[in-house]
Amino acid sequence: MSGFIASSLYFDSEDINHSSGKTLKNESIDFFVTDATLTRWSETGAIQSVTQTPLAEHKKEQNLLKLQTPFSKSLRTDGSTELTLKAKKGFLMDDNSRFDVAGDVQLHHNPESESENLLLTEQLAYFPPTGVATSDVDVEFLNNQGRTEGVGMTLDTSKNTLNILSRVRGQYVSTTSN
Hints:
six-stranded antiparallel barrel, mainly beta, 178 residues
């Protein structure tokens, strides 16, 4: 969890440094792409994820892409959508091991099924190799059974488990009929 706290601090310092006009050495951009579509394939040649962004800036020293308003789709081996993720900004590690997003974050798990789940938060770290997402700020989880909110969470998409860490509150819809 400490890695996500560092990411939270990174978002804050990133905004401060850019607004003051200062550029640190570790912030140098070696290339940028406009209207980018980033596609990742598995070792077998299947598409694993597609991420779209109007602006991607590569930070060589940090081995990451800074993305403006990213929208990402992760696919299962059968081609169905496992999840979609969108936010105001994101930082995607070059090796696709981690995707940090912030600002009006929306993560849809199983968006093509009746068991769709929507997670809303302001900051999130997603780890594509494991399918785990974490957050240490307020979260809201919505599905056809109700609404749950709290502070901090771990979502494991491969196991379909959600653990909200504190201040948990929920409203549920009854599935029984009279």
